[in-house]
Structure to design on (641 residues):
């Protein structure tokens, strides 16, 4: 499990997933933001927002590495394509209804008093802000600060509070230029100092923030500050020449920083100084927000309620929604709550799919699918011991996996075949080029095993396939199908054994590893190929140590030229798949249902065919610009708020 997979605020109903790194987070998702190279302060323009296709295509693997967006100075758009800021203005309603934010509702929208959302979550959490606590955030967290950057539906990075940025020639200093006139609810203006004090607070060992790993080794002096070796005033985040200039210095070139810094949802510097922690946002009387909402009610055993921030002045994201409810629940099924009309949306899993297909009320509902943390499920080998030290054995096992049949029989529609570590849409991912290296080819698999000295499996030792417990409920069926396929195609004998997660991880991480052949998954921690591909770097999670692979990653990591960077990562992916230290089986998709009244263009398919709320809404992306409650709400909603 990646650290990012734990970023979710532990509340469901309407998805707000913090996957980034992006993410998250990004919480994602798949764009690698590369910095401009050459002369200092010579930026390039951002990618234009992609116009939606009239007929969205089904998810298709991409053969060519995706172009990498560049840091921006001026936000531009393709002629005729609205920018995110223009989208925020909304479409005038025929009825002329205008909400509390001054935004006209769509013609098919429900009345203003029904423009609210409802979700559910567990109680007992202590924080409403990312930089107070990541793993202990309450329902409806993270609506009180705004990030420096945003991500669109196609995983492009766009300006947020930072309207432009530049990178120094040595690749170590980022200069973010903030928008002026963004106000906090207490009447103070949002400035660089808010971000400076937020990052210093996160690095303060007295605060003991639960996510310091995210910036360690990235922001200059951050690691030493967390350890108490230097004061937090020495970390590489400071105000520039004026209150609207933020300087971020890194330990080494980090060309994807604008994507990683999606998770910069600032706290108020004044409130931090007054209350000495971010818990001020768990009290309606002391809550301070520069986001569209502010805390109206904090009842840990009943509900949290967000109402409109009347001082809200950030024009890049202007909501239709006027209020949010997060009801506290204990136990029970969120899928059943959705069926009962108590929540706006719900994540669904494989066991739910048959229920949906057989339910007369749900069978016509569209199941939205998207990657979230771009997780890959794979079988891995201890390449230092027999028989796995023979590449032809590993390649034989790879070519004996019928991915399409496994997905169709067990996982559909919540998976796509995996031929490498990176999922379509993730930064620098390639797909079609990897298929010939690991595709289902029984004859080739038999030939490779014979060339390795085991014709028709003769002489091949019986091996144990270890499965990590606490995985998805489909793990049992998938691993049984894998074992059956290997036995049928290769003539080998395989024993399956499930270990509880602590035991499995202890054995996996032992030096030398005690898991010679196992089943596991990995999802991104941050939004860059260096994160995912780094899992197979020498000395990492697995013991495949390949000097050529390591060199490719080392050369690619600091590059700011997107074409050169992507080319090196493409070579690394080909090498990884061809050498087969793992058999990549499938990329997980997350499935969601939305009530018919829950509308918004951001639910539509992106360029990769993924749809639904991939990265939640504010403050990561522009989703709040277009989500609204339609006029048919009374037919479906039965929530108690």
């Amino acid at each position: 499990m990646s650290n990012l997979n734990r970023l979710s605020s532990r509340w469901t109903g309407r998805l707000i997933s913090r996957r980034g790194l992006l993410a998250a987070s990004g919480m994602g998702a798949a764009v690698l933001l590369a910095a401009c190279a050459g002369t200092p302060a010579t930026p390039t323009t951002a990618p234009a927002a992609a116009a939606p296709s009239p007929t969205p295509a089904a998810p298709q693997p991409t053969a060519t590495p995706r172009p990498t967006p560049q840091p921006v100075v001026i936000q531009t758009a393709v002629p005729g394509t609205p920018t995110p800021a223009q989208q925020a203005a909304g479409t005038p309603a025929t009825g002329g209804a205008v909400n509390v934010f001054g935004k006209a509702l769509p013609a098919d929208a429900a009345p203003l008093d029904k423009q609210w959302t409802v979700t559910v979550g567990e109680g007992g959490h202590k924080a409403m802000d990312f930089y107070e606590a990541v793993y202990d955030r309450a329902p409806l967290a993270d609506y009180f600060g705004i990030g420096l950057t945003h991500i669109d539906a196609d995983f492009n990075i766009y300006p947020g509070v930072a309207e432009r940025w530049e990178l120094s020639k040595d690749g170590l200093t980022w200069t973010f230029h903030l928008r002026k006139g963004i106000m906090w609810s207490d009447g103070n203006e949002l400035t660089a100092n808010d971000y400076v004090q937020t990052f210093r607070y996160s690095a303060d060992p007295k605060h003991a923030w639960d996510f310091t790993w995210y910036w360690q080794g990235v922001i200059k002096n951050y690691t030493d500050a967390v350890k108490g070796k230097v004061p937090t005033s020495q970390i590489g985040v400071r105000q520039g020449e004026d209150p609207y200039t933020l300087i971020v210095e890194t330990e080494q070139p980090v060309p994807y920083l604008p994507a990683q810094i999606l998770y910069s949802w600032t706290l108020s510097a004044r409130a931090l100084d007054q209350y000495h922690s971010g818990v001020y946002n768990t009290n309606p009387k002391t809550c301070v927000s520069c986001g569209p909402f502010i805390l109206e009610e904090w009842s840990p055993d009943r509900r949290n309620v967000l109402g409109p921030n009347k001082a809200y002045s950030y024009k890049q994201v202007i909501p239709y929604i006027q209020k949010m409810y997060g009801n506290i629940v204990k136990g029970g099924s969120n899928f059943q709550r959705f069926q009962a009309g108590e929540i706006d949306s719900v994540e669904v899993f494989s066991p739910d799919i048959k229920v949906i297909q057989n339910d007369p009320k749900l069978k016509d509902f569209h199941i939205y699918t998207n990657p979230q943390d771009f997780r890959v499920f794979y079988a891995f080998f201890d390449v230092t011991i027999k028989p796995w030290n023979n590449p032809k054995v590993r390649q034989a096992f790879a070519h004996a996996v019928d991915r399409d049949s496994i997905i169709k029989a067990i996982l559909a529609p919540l998976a796509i075949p995996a031929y490498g570590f990176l999922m379509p849409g993730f930064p620098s991912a390639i797909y079609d080029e990897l298929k010939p290296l690991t595709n289902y080819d029984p004859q080739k698999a038999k030939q490779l095993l014979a060339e390795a000295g085991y014709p028709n499996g003769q002489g091949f030792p019986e091996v144990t396939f270890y499965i990590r417990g606490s995985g998805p409920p489909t793990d049992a069926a998938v691993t049984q199908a894998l074992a059956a396929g290997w036995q049928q195609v290769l003539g080998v004998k395989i024993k399956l054994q499930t270990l509880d997660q602590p035991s499995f991880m202890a054995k996996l991480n032992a030096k030398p590893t005690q898991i010679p052949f196992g089943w596991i998954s990995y999802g991104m921690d941050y939004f860059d190929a260096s994160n995912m591909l780094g899992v197979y770097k020498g000395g990492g999670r697995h013991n495949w140590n390949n000097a050529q692979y390591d060199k490719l990653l080392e050369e690619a990591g600091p590059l700011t030229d997107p074409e050169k960077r992507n080319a090196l990562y493409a070579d690394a992916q080909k090498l990884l798949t061809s050498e087969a230290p793992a058999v990549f089986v499938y990329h997980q998709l997350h499935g969601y249902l939305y009530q018919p009244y829950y509308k918004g263009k951001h639910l539509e398919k992106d360029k990769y065919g993924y749809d639904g709320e991939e990265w939640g809404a504010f403050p990561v992306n522009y989703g709040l610009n277009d989500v609204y409650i339609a006029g048919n709400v009374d037919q479906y909603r039965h929530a108690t708020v």
In short: Residues 517 and 579 are 16 Å apart (CA to CA).
